[in-house]
Design goal:
2 helices; 11 strands; 3-stranded mixed β-sheet
Amino acid sequence: MARSALLPTHAGASRAAPQPCSGRAHRGKRALPLPIPAAARAYGPGLFVADAAAFEADGRHADGAALSLVGEFTSVSAQDADWTDKLDVYGLLVPVYLVVDMQGSEITCFSDPSPHGYRSRTTVSFGEPLHVPEPFGCVIDSSGF
């Protein structure tokens, strides 16, 4: 069963049923460290969705302010950073942060960033569908994990 923790709620919001998530692989670009200006940090996430303009500048970094989704797949060695440091940094700016907890067999979606971090968190066990809010408005089928 999905566990959800929403701090603020938006009464009266009506939405169409979410569709399965889909996307195209971005080819021809190597994942670069993505600096997050508000945190003076740069990360190379496991997966990300960014506006194409993020890659227009030459150099060693892509523009982290253009991120709309970041995802991390936990490992024993990086698990703490995924749940603490990165959560704090992404929670300032990135609309959606997914943590695929390979050790805990669950996936968590953080959304609604603010100057104090994410205001919404939903966790499901592998095998359950996970709703990803706008700007994506889709459902991830986690049965393949």
